[in-house]
Amino acid sequence: MRIFAVIAGIAIVAGILLDAFETIVLPRRITRTFRLTSWFYRNTWVPWARGARRIKSPARREAVLGYFGPSSLILLLILWAFGLIFGFALLQYGAGEHLQLSNERVSFGALMYHSGETFFTLGYGDITPVSPVARALAVLEAGMGFAFLGVVIGYLPTIYSAFSRREIEISLLDARAGSPPTAAELLTRFGNCPQQTVLDEILRDWEHWAAQVLESHLSYPVLSFFRSQHNNQSWLGALTTILDASALVMAGIDGVRDEQARLTFAMARHAVVDLAQVMRAQYDAHTTDRLPAAELNRLRAALGEQDLRLKDGIEAEEKLDHLRSLYEPYAIALARRLFITLPPWIHPEKKKDNWQGGPWDRLIQARGLGRAQRMDEHF
After folding, report:
1. What's the number of domains the chain is made of?
2. What pairs with residue 54 in β-bridges?
3. Are 206 and 264 in contact (CB under 8 A)?
4. DSSP label at residue 221
């Protein structure tokens, strides 16, 4: 019985240490074999998302979904700590000898308590290891407790720093491509600038942003669950918008060169494909077309109003369809997996950007109208 406890304890401690090492210290591989963290997120996100789907209010639903990322991070750290405490308790039970102040029998429950106070370095001394093995295990566990505290102190700021960098660029996209962002808004606002360098610089910035998102979300997949500050914004929506806009430029817009669009498309497509693998998103051949013929015609008309002529003809449409097939299935699968609504190619109607709205706007407008009426009456 005790030898089985030792084997189980070694397996649990080694498994958790390997999982924490791969998650925090060496988070570089896209696909992994069994890992506790992957199992944890697969079995917590699905019921959480299903519960959120029952909430009718979009704002409340997004709020509930937004709790998952930070909460899951804390729960994962608790799971690691509990697993190490339980594993060392098994090792102490199988290989150690202990004395208790009250001379009571040292049960496994008492060893769990002893393992916990050792891990968190409380040091009450009411249970004392006697054998050399037990003492060595106690010293090793106490050192691991210090290391765990250091991991927590270093891990959380890294996560939130990466989240902050991601959200800054998403907020900047608000004035450039609308809320939520669309390829049509981005191109109509910047595609017809006298100098194409303006559009190229925007696409170049988003090429770098896509690379940063790929690196940070591969290293720390939990960031994929972190929602943006506004309900109509998301990292996946921004990435899809940039891919849409780059695809349109590559498909052909008269007078617009596609050199930078090609680079941005390649990097953004790399990000969406790899992250779909990390999140284990499933392909669905029966998804709704994001750009049916009627929407494509509306898009052509909207671009045409800004002197941006999207090339037509069978060859141009086939090229656009091919480019879309390279990334849309992955983006749609990720959106379904993360319960994120992808932005359209073009808004059905004109929408205000987030920066144009405010809680006092109606009161200020009403006050302004009242003042104007009084001035009219006065004159």
Report:
1. 2
2. none
3. yes
4. G
